[in-house]
Amino acid sequence: MNIRSVSLTGSAGGSRSLLRDAAVTAAAFIASAGFAGGCPSMLNAGLAAVFPSAVMPVFAVSALYYMIFAGFSAGVIQLSSMLLAAVLQAAFFKGSKKDSPVWTALLVSGSLLFFSVTVLSVSGASAEMMMVYVINSVMTGCFVYASLSLINEYRLVRTVVLGGANGFYAAIIYIMTVSVLSGTGIVLLDPGRTLGCFVLLTAAKRYRMTGGAAVGALTSCAVFIGAPALSGNTLLLATAGLICGAFAELGVLAVSLSFIVVMAAGLAAMGTGQDAWHMFIDAAAGALVFAAVPQGCLRRLTARFFGGRLASDTIGRATASRLGYVSSSLSEIRSQLAAVSAAMDRKTSRPSLSETVFETMCRSCELKGICHRDPALSASRLEKLEQTAMCYSGVSDRDVSGSFPDCRFPELMSDSFNYAYKNYLDSRAAKLHISELRSLISEQLLAMEDILADLSFRVGRIRAADRELSERVRGLFGRLGYPNARACVYIDETGFTHAEIFISGEFSGDGMQLALAVSDITDCMLALPVVSEADGLTRILLSQQSVYELERGSFTASSSDSGCSGDTFDEVVISGCERYAVLSDGMGTGQRARLDSMFAVSLASRLLTAGVSMRSALRMINTVLKVKGWDESFATLDIMRFDLCAGRAELLKAGAAPTYLYRDGVLRRFGGQAMPAGILDSLSPDEFECKLFDGDMLLLLSDGVSDRTVREVMSEAGEGSADPDKVAQSIGERAMKESGAHRDDISVAVYRIRLAAA
Length: 758
Fold this sequence. Notes:
Blueprint: H1 14-32, E1 35-36, E2 39-40, H2 43-50, H3 55-70, H4 76-93, H5 101-123, H6 127-157, H7 165-182, H8 191-226, H9 231-234, H10 236-245, H11 252-270, H12 274-292, H13 295-305, H14 311-347, H15 353-362, H16 368-371, H17 375-392, H18 397-403, H19 410-460, E3 462-466, H20 467-479, E4 486-492, E5 497-504, H21 511-522, E6 530-534, E7 537-543, E8 548-557, E9 567-573, E10 578-585, H22 590-609, H23 614-627, E11 637-643, E12 648-654, E13 659-663, E14 666-670, E15 686-691, E16 697-701, H24 707-717, H25 724-739, E17 746-755
């Protein structure tokens, strides 16, 4: 990755730059005193390359140390390498693509190797000593590359994720630092081991046993490089880190005490030599510093520089979990609504018409004893009048007089029956309306549940987001005139790279140039961008070039000479890997059918573009068609999803004509008995899935094409070489000829799958 290692001076304030350069200078002075593998440390040359703004102070303090304490000959290789690397970098690499971590590391390592071989050859050093210098030169180059890589990431996101390659880089820097400090030769307190104990306790407190054991092992390795004589007792650090990490939940004091106890017991078991006592002093000093540092400051420092988990991955998983939780909650609400509705229907019971009339009129009548002296006969007569009212939408005075000849008020009784019947009809209509509303609400909740599950699935498919590349893509759009662009470069579960960018307003750039520029940033070939707009926001999606590609041919014809076909076809491109074919046949022919099919296809296209699955989109379309207010408004729907990266096709059919797969001369038919959208409250579509291979053909058809026509045309087309457009034309024209004057609207879409060109 070509990320320039620009000096921090331009981005930080003057005082911060001075403090940083002062710290680097002090570190270079200490590094000059260190040894690694028996030769003077070369870490000061590495610091000069990592921080080029401090190269002169680093050179000065290093030269000062060698002249005072070790002699100028001990540092001639390091000092010469500093000057040569600084001159070459300023003269040839500054501001170019080679001004990157890998080139800077190679430059420093090469300079050290050159002067090491030259000086040692002149002085007649042994082959073993020359190999030690070569190893140190390579290790210094690794230190430079690791340091610049972490610094560049920190500039972009203001944190360094301790995981993956970053964890490896941090381990290199840590080993080099501890090894140099251990090789300084200080007798009373070894600074390398003391620092190692402090870092071990910090890691054990934050990452528990794993962090403590890992840092302990790294410290032992580093001490072995810097001071092999001290490495024996240092091996205890891995065990001590593992044990004290188990006490991390109990607090700082518990971690520190457990570490000191384990170190004391281990050193006592290994022996009471002088280094064992020094090792215990180093461990106690590291524990004392760890306990003395305020934990709040330590937590903020470690969180700022080493975030233990990729933030985008954490947010993505949390978002997917939250969407899944909301989907489950909606499912529970829908179940509770269904249970309450069923309970209300069971408990709600209205009195019959005869009971209503008897209670409101006959019971309070003074002549009740005459008309109702025989209760069983009276109930039978009232039921007969109720049946008459239900059959003929009311009763007349004559009907009442025929059933109750002794009734003195037949007009009033007939009015009472008719009024009760009217109330019954109103109540039934209201109940049916409420039932339809409950059904609609339940269906909408189910659709929302499915949509949230779809979004959760899509978010969960993101396996890793690269923040560094995302920032570089955002910078590219800033240079193109979109300063508020938001970009995300991620890898999905199949291992394919995608770049998703959101901008305000329209995108007016060249798609080909944009694809090439982003491909250069991501270091993989991306397909042309897919641009979609919604409410002033533009989404630009670039995906890695797919394994397969599609060739399409189509045919459409109206049933009449008016040219208004009731069929609608559309193709929805989501990314280079994912696209949909949508075909709908409206009820009947002409403009009315055209309107229904256009409505269904348009809604499906918008939902699929938004990330909704085919099944959820069909559920929404079915609900909308059912309640949009037109009589008998429905349409068939064919939705086919192509995954051109995995080489798969998924098919969803609702009342549509059969779909065909033509492979190796064999025609396979997909189709079922599913109803069209807009008829029933809930819809159970036909669903199919198949693996795609090079040369396969998929045929989407409307009702106007017969099975015999398809088989005849495909048998004549032959295998592999048939042109999709010619096949579609042949099927459509033959279907029109066979249907004659009573032909239906005809639509044909033929897709051929091909391996993408390498």
